[in-house]
Amino acid sequence: MYIAMNRFKVRKGEEPAFEAVWRARESRLHEMTGFSAFHLLRGPEGEDHTLYVSHTIWDSHADFVAWTKSEQFRDAHKDAGKGPSLTIGHPVFEGFEAVELADVTA
Fold it and tell me: Could you give the C-alpha distances from 70 to 20, 30, 31, 66, in angstroms and in order?
């Protein structure tokens, strides 16, 4: 399993607009081999921003790399950077290979 994350510092007051952009987008992730899940997470507030992270889960690093080189990726990101900036700086990417997995069962 491979987890791809992007951290965003969203300007104070722009949280609703940032979340609306994510809800309205057509990601096309579901079209990709190896895609398992997507999450947008809101984190702690700083003095001038709220931290968010987008989090995708893939079967493998190779599946994630294929996404980044795909027509679907280009289409999903075609409007990135257009309009007023809702964030402070660029997103920070972090990628993780699973070392150990545990599931909770009822």
Answer: 25, 13, 10, 6
Provide the 8-state DSSP code for 87.
Answer: B
Question: CB-side exposure of 103: number of CA atoms within 13 Å?
Answer: 2
Q: Give dist(CA 44, CA 35) in Å, integer.
A: 27
Using an 8 Å Cβ cutoff, are 7 and 53 in contact?
yes
φ/ψ of 4, rounded to 5, equals -110, 125
Per-residue pLDDT of the chain (106 residues; tens, 9 = 90+): 999 999 999 999 999 999 998 898 888 999 999 999 999 999 999 999 999 999 999 999 999 999 999 999 888 887 676 666 899 998 999 999 999 988 887 6
Could you give the domains of the chain? 2-97 (3.30.70.100)
